Amino acid sequence: xxxxxxxxxxxxxxxxxxxxxxxxxxxxxxxxxxxxxxxxxxxxxxxx
Length: 48
Fold this sequence. Notes:
The chain has strands spanning 18-20, 26-29, 34-37. By secondary structure, it is mostly beta strands. It has one domain (1-38): N-terminal domain of TfIIb, CATH 2.20.25. The chain has a 3-stranded antiparallel β-sheet with strand order 1-2-3, with no helix packed on it. The radius of gyration is 12 Å and the shape is elongated.
């Protein structure tokens, strides 16, 4: 798997102090101590 989705800021606090967390798209924000995961769903994906 290639690393595709790299966040530029935390979706919770907006800070840029991020580090990879537990592989597979996981990220940890050192500013607000929250972890989150990114997942690429595809281009032009429709849910309806």
